Backbone:
């Protein structure tokens, strides 16, 4: 979500809205307006109703239906059969209607045509709705398609960031030191294998004392000594309960370490301002 | 000075936008002039059924003269007429028939305005699109000031209204966007006009805690005040808010105040309190974090002004030019046009304290500068003075003829909806080309 810092008394709403839109664009990858989505949907609708698609003439039929004026729906009432604009004829028909009903009963016919008229009206009302439903479905499908595309892009981006973070985490683990007694992380089995047997705490303490007696080593000695082990070698040594090394290679008592330790007993050797381990 | 205020409905219990606007203006101008309200006996804006007695009445100390409506509105007939003039080529006669079918048709009211015009200094005609305003402006153009309360709907594209806007003495606009739209549609730049708007009766003290206790609202909330109606953008608001609520489970609640004419989604974070008295309404706005205005069409949102008066930012629908323009000019609100923007802006207002505080403060300043009653009254009185000076100079604009019997029946008028699409729409903001007169009229 967008975060703004308001520094001055003058708030520019348009500027804020530009920032918000830029942020949305950044998140969505591509920023489609409603009109653009509609346009895309229309294109999809054409494709959906393409001759090679579902039905050859479905779109044309819909269009024709909408464009051509529908035949007027005949409202069929009980008097419709006998209607006329000629007054005399209407009078004669009204007069003879009881006679006509002696020969047959027109009521079922009138009822049936009345129902048919209603059905026609219902059908006419439903047709635009069907079209609208299809149209809306395609619109939603388009929107979902775009969302899926954007989500795919986000997943790809996140997975690459995750890879990066994992690599970074491994690199950091390679340069941390562990307090004596802290449980080191499990090491992956190495193919070549380290032929040395694990050191006991007594052996480790003896080795540290030797180092303290030897004093500060020259830089080239330190570099040469480390380069042979690599990150894994360093981890192996520290994981065996070694005393953490100071910047200059001198041993420090645990109690004198900085407060940078986390609750797992990890202590970063050195961090620059943005949290990256520095090589100094 | 003697004034008449002509409006389609009038009453202390009528809360429609233009009608309430007319009542406030009548009551305020009564402090400076002798004011009479001329209206119909109708109470319902859909049917225009005569429900109030004909004759003179008093509403909050203002004399109100009511005239009967000759026929109720037939929705089917009105729908057919609307389709004809909005969607098809048509004639002037068709437009006049549409106006008649829209109502409230009250020839007696127009006759009265014409008879009493000589005794009046000015007649304020509210709502350009109704029968009384159109006929009133044509019968007494020398006294007529129009308060259009126009929204961006196809009616503004009808040819008959162009002549009205060009014939009246002055137009009191609600917003810069309204003025830009009317001028683009009717070319009435020559007619004196001023953007006024309307003030509101903001209580000196509000108590948000009282509202929270009374209605058992504990969590921070955004508020919507008004009719809960699809036409007011509430459907979209609910849709957006439900999605937002799913994304931010601990975000703001939504409190709705007003009568509902559409179903409200059942959600633990949406609270509908119904119609509330003014005291509660103002307490609620004071207790809220922000006001949401989802409406697509507004000529002026009084509730947005009330929120600004109480130092609350507004989140408005950016597709409504007026609301968007007000948010930009006041620097007191954000706006959205789709869900992503809704979520981002709501979150920004919810989470960014300095932004929220600054927008709220700007809103209060904006209201004080433009919408307090002394400012509004002064704009009306200045306009009256300007028109009196014009009277003294003898300058008059003739009423435009609509043509003879045959000319009125020729189908030369373009569909109003088509005309509307040619009218530029956008918020009028400082620095834009459309805002050249912004500082002058503000």
Residues:
């Amino acid at each position: 979500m967008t975060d703004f810092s308001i520094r001055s008394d003058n708030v520019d709403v348009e500027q804020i809205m530009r920032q918000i839109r830029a942020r949305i664009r950044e998140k969505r990858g591509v920023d489609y307006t409603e009109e653009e989505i509609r346009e895309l949907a229309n294109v999809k609708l054409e494709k959906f109703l393409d001759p090679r698609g579902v039905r050859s003439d479905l779109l044309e039929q819909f269009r024709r239906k909408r464009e051509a004026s529908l035949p007027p729906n005949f409202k069929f009432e009980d008097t419709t059969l006998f209607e006329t604009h000629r007054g005399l004829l209407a009078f004669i028909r009204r007069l003879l209607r009881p006679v006509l009903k002696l020969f047959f009963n027109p009521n079922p016919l009138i009822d049936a045509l009345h129902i048919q008229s209603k059905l026609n009206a219902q059908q006419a009302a439903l047709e635009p709705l069907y079209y609208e439903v299809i149209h809306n479905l395609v619109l939603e499908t388009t929107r979902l398609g775009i969302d899926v595309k954007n989500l795919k892009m986000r997943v790809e981006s996140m997975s690459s960031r995750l890879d990066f973070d994992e690599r970074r985490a491994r690199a950091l683990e390679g340069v941390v030191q562990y307090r004596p007694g802290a449980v080191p992380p499990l090491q992956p089995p190495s193919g070549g294998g380290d032929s040395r047997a694990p050191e006991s705490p007594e052996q480790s303490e003896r080795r540290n004392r030797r180092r303290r007696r030897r004093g500060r080593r020259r830089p080239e000695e330190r570099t040469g000594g480390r380069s042979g082990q690599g990150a894994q070698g360093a981890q192996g040594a520290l994981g065996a309960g070694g005393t953490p090394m100071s910047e200059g290679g001198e041993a420090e008592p645990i109690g004198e370490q900085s407060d940078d330790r986390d609750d797992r007993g990890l202590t970063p050797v050195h961090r620059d301002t943005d949290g990256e381990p520095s090589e100094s | 000075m003697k004034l008449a205020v002509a409006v389609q409905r009038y009453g202390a219990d009528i809360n429609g936008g233009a009608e309430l606007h007319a009542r406030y203006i009548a009551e305020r101008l009564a402090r400076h002039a002798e004011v009479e309200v001329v209206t119909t006996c109708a109470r319902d804006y859909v049917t225009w059924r005569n429900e109030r007695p004909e004759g003179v009445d008093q509403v909050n100390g203002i004399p109100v003269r009511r005239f009967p409506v000759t026929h109720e509105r037939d929705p089917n007939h009105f729908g057919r007429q609307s389709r004809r003039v909005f969607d098809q080529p048509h004639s002037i006669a068709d437009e006049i028939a549409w106006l008649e079918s829209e109502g409230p048709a009250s020839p007696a009211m127009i006759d009265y305005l014409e008879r009493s015009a000589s005794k009046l200094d000015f007649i304020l005609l509210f709502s350009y699109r109704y029968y009384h305003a159109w006929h009133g402006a044509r019968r007494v153009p020398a006294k007529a000031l129009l308060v259009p309360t126009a929204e961006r709907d196809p009616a503004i594209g009808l040819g008959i209204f162009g002549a009205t806007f060009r014939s009246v003495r002055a137009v009191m606009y609600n917003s810069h966007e309204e003025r830009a739209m009317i001028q683009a549609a009717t070319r009435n730049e020559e007619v004196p006009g001023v953007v006024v708007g309307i003030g509101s009766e903001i209580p000196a003290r509000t108590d948000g805690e009282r509202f929270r206790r009374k209605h058992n609202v504990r969590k921070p909330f955004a508020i919507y005040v008004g009719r809960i109606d699809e036409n007011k953008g509430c459907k979209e608001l609910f849709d957006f808010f439900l999605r937002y609520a799913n994304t931010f489970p601990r975000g703001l609640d939504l409190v709705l105040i007003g009568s509902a004419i559409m179903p409200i989604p059942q959600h633990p974070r949406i609270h509908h309190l119904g119609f509330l008295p003014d005291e509660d309404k103002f307490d609620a706005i004071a207790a809220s974090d922000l006001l949401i205005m989802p409406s697509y069409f507004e000529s002026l949102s009084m509730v947005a002004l009330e929120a600004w008066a109480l130092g609350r930012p507004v989140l408005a629908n950016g597709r409504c030019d007026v609301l968007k323009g007000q948010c930009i000019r006041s620097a007191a609100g954000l706006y959205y046009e789709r869900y992503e923007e809704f979520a981002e802006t709501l979150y920004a207002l919810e989470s960014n304290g300095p932004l929220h505080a600054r927008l709220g403060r700007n809103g209060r300043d904006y209201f004080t500068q433009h919408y307090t009653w002394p400012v509004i009254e002064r704009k009306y009185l200045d306009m009256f003075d300007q028109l009196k000076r014009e009277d003294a100079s003898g300058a008059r604009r003739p009423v435009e003829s609509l043509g003879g019997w045959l000319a009125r029946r020729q189908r030369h008028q373009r569909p109003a909806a088509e005309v509307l699409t040619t009218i530029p729409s956008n918020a009028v903001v400082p620095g834009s080309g459309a805002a050249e007169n912004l500082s002058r009229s503000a």
About this structure: Residues 16-174 of chain A form one domain. Helices of chain A lie at 13-28, 34-48, 58-67, 87-103, 107-175, 201-214, 219-227, 230-239. The radius of gyration of chain A is 43 Å.
